[in-house]
Amino acid sequence: GENVEQHPSTLSVQEGDSAVIKCTYSDSASNYFPWYKQELGKRPQLIIDIRSNVGEKKDQRIAVTLNKTAKHFSLHITETQPEDSAVYFCAAFKTSYDKVIFGPGTSLSVIP
Amino acid sequence: DGGITQSPKYLFRKEGQNVTLSCEQNLNHDAMYWYRQDPGQGLRLIYYSQIVNDFQKGDIAEGYSVSREKKESFPLTVTSAQKNPTAFYLCASSGAGSYNEQFFGPGTRLTVL
């Protein structure tokens, strides 16, 4: 089945710097890659997603890139702010598999 | 807040007791999921259901049971067979088909005393 790895497990950046989180997946048939943000004590919420027919997607300060050949995708946050501090989960989804496989998460701390 | 609710928010259980966690959604979603989250760890899939009266085991189904008698409801029972049930439990739902966002409930924190 699908396996999703995520690095780093923890990340600290200064406010205003960029943060990058990287994920790899094992099943080349996976075709949808969402990213979720979970603030402390709250539920995960979708922040951005990308489909396998797209190489990059951007939404304000957040961008995601996908390299299908290498089977990895990354989340980029620019101009980080303290409210970006949270745990971020990447995930992979394959239509025929019908379930989302999550990575183990990255705890991001933005230092004011 | 997304139309998916879980109750109770906190639950305490004595060892050897079964307990049922509630999950309800009014989003008309076909698919529903249960995840377990331990401190500092990711989301592990317990059970999922794509349609009423049908469900499949996830990666850590042992010691858990579910039912899907109604589209809106997907309760999870943590049985006494689950050796380490203390955790944060998240329910989620999504629409049918590909590329559908999962909406999560607020979670239930279960503590075994």
Question: Quick recap of the structure?
Answer:
By secondary structure, chain A is mainly beta.
Present the secondary structure layout.
The complex is a heterodimer of chains A (112) and B (113).
Chain A: E1 4-7, E2 10-14, E3 19-25, E4 32-38, E5 45-51, E6 56-59, E7 62-67, E8 72-77, E9 86-93, E10 100-102, E11 106-111
Parallel strand pairs in A: 2-11
Antiparallel strand pairs in A: 1-3, 3-8, 4-5, 4-9, 6-7, 7-8, 9-10, 9-11
Chain B: E1 4-7, E2 10-13, E3 19-25, E4 31-37, E5 43-51, E6 54-57, E7 64-66, E8 76-78, E9 87-94, E10 103-104, E11 108-112
Parallel strand pairs in B: 2-11
Antiparallel strand pairs in B: 1-3, 3-8, 4-5, 4-9, 5-6, 7-8, 9-10, 9-11
Structure, described:
- The complex is a heterodimer of chains A (112) and B (113).
- Chain A has strands spanning 4-7, 10-14, 19-25, 32-38, 45-51, 56-59, 62-67, 72-77, 86-93, 100-102, 106-111.
- Chain A is mainly beta and 112 residues long.
- In chain A, the strands form two sheets. In chain A, strands 2, 4, 5, 9, 10 and 11 form a six-stranded mixed beta sheet that branches. A five-stranded antiparallel beta sheet of chain A has the order 1-3-8-7-6, with no helix packed on it.
- Chain A starts with a strand and ends with a strand.
- Chain B has 113 residues and is mainly β.
- Chain B is 0% helix and 50% strand.
- Chain B has strands at 4-7, 10-13, 19-25, 31-37, 43-51, 54-57, 64-66, 76-78, 87-94, 103-104, 108-112.
- In chain B, the strands form two sheets. In chain B, strands 2, 4, 5, 6, 9, 10 and 11 form a seven-stranded mixed beta sheet that branches.
- Chain B is globular, with a radius of gyration of 13 Å.
- The mean pLDDT of chain B is 91.
- Chains A and B meet through β5 and β10 of A and β4 and β5 of B.
